[in-house]
From TrEMBL:
<protein>
    <recommendedName>
        <fullName>BASS family bile acid:Na+ symporter</fullName>
    </recommendedName>
</protein>
<feature type="transmembrane region" description="Helical">
    <location>
        <begin position="6"/>
        <end position="25"/>
    </location>
</feature>
<keyword id="KW-1133">Transmembrane helix</keyword>
<dbReference type="InterPro" id="IPR038770">
    <property type="entry name" value="Na+/solute_symporter_sf"/>
</dbReference>
<keyword id="KW-0472">Membrane</keyword>
<feature type="transmembrane region" description="Helical">
    <location>
        <begin position="285"/>
        <end position="306"/>
    </location>
</feature>
<feature type="transmembrane region" description="Helical">
    <location>
        <begin position="220"/>
        <end position="247"/>
    </location>
</feature>
<keyword id="KW-0813">Transport</keyword>
<feature type="transmembrane region" description="Helical">
    <location>
        <begin position="63"/>
        <end position="84"/>
    </location>
</feature>
<feature type="transmembrane region" description="Helical">
    <location>
        <begin position="37"/>
        <end position="57"/>
    </location>
</feature>
<dbReference type="GO" id="GO:0012505">
    <property type="term" value="C:endomembrane system"/>
</dbReference>
<feature type="transmembrane region" description="Helical">
    <location>
        <begin position="189"/>
        <end position="208"/>
    </location>
</feature>
<feature type="transmembrane region" description="Helical">
    <location>
        <begin position="156"/>
        <end position="177"/>
    </location>
</feature>
<keyword id="KW-0812">Transmembrane</keyword>
<feature type="transmembrane region" description="Helical">
    <location>
        <begin position="253"/>
        <end position="273"/>
    </location>
</feature>
<feature type="transmembrane region" description="Helical">
    <location>
        <begin position="96"/>
        <end position="118"/>
    </location>
</feature>
<feature type="transmembrane region" description="Helical">
    <location>
        <begin position="124"/>
        <end position="144"/>
    </location>
</feature>
């Protein structure tokens, strides 16, 4: 395994911070409204990115089992946090906290790190884990977020309108029937992952441009940080140790699961909050803080976890 060095994380970190800075400038100097950008991400860029990644990945039953396992884990964490948080936070904040609890920046931040730390097979395993988290975001996570503002029926209607679910089913159909996607189509879709990353991080900066000191909610931010850098690392470590006790767990899969557990908060927390109108400023601050802390916390956690699991 490649040694885990804080320098490994600085490249992805500075790139993401630069995108956030561009978003801040766009909102401050050009008066760009982030709401249409959030809608564009949810209804167009994310589904096409998701479809392309799944088709290229060549899903197998084993890979899809990883996707399903991460989807179930993320959903359970979110549901439990939602039940607990609604006693201490207002409905919008508890809904946003629940959404953020089930996900992390597994793509924008985690993937560049995975490419450095993992062999090609490990990167593929990591990507199918990421697909499970992403599927959670746009199904269970979106529903819990919508429930902070809307009725059950309205929330379900909003989910039914999300094209990412249909993109997932379409990709499975294409792979299952061994249909050939034209090369020109796949080449055209190649631009969407980078667009997804760029716009997803810029929208954080656009939202931060509107933040005032009065909107700082340290109780909410503290809860987000505790879940992301407290609960998730412990759960991922426990999952790896439990699986190792049951059977011979491949080292690359173990490291992929450990990395899933320690990435910063997801930028999609802000995207979904913006789309649904549920405290996006608070979400943006929490995402920024966890992203800035990542270069210090991730090497420490992964080094400790690798020793404990014997990788």
């Amino acid at each position: 395994m490649t040694p885990i060095d804080p320098g490994t994380l600085m490249g992805p970190l500075w790139t993401l911070l630069a995108y956030i800075g561009l978003g801040w400038l766009a909102a401050r100097r050009l008066a760009v409204d982030p709401r249409p950008v959030a809608t564009l991400l949810i209804y167009l860029v994310a589904p096409l990115t998701f479809f392309r990644g799944l088709v290229l990945g060549g899903p197998t039953p084993g890979y899809l089992l990883l996707t399903a396992a991460l989807f179930v884990l993320a959903s359970l964490i979110a549901v439990v946090v939602h039940r607990l948080a609604r006693h201490s936070f207002a409905p919008p904040e508890s809904a946003l906290l629940a959404f953020s609890a089930g996900t992390g920046n597994t793509g924008y931040f985690g993937l560049p790190v995975a490419l450095v730390l993992l062999p090609p097979q490990g990167v593929t395993l990591y990507l199918f884990c990421v697909l499970g988290v992403t599927l959670y975001e746009f199904t269970v996570g979106f529903y819990l977020s919508a429930r902070g503002q809307f009725s059950v029926r309205q929330s379900l209607v909003k989910i039914a309108r999300l094209p990412l679910v249909y993109a997932f089913l379409a990709a499975l159909l294409v792979s299952g029937l061994r249909l050939e996607v034209p090369g020109a189509v796949m080449q055209g879709l190649a631009a969407f992952p980078a667009t997804y990353t760029l716009l997803g991080m810029m929208i954080i900066g656009m939202t931060l441009a509107r933040v005032t000191i009065r909107q700082l909610d340290w109780r909410f931010i503290g809860a987000c940080v505790a879940i992301r850098y407290g609960l998730w690392p412990l759960l991922s470590l426990a999952a790896v140790l439990g699986l190792q006790a049951l059977f011979l767990l491949p080292g690359e899969l173990a490291l992929a699961l450990l990395l899933i557990g320690v990435v910063p908060m997801a930028a999609n927390v802000v995207v979904v909050a913006m789309e649904l109108g549920i405290a996006p400023e608070k979400g943006a601050l929490a995402v920024l803080i966890t992203t800035l802390a990542a270069p210090l916390l991730i090497p420490f956690y992964l080094t400790l976890a690798v020793r404990l699991t014997g990788l």
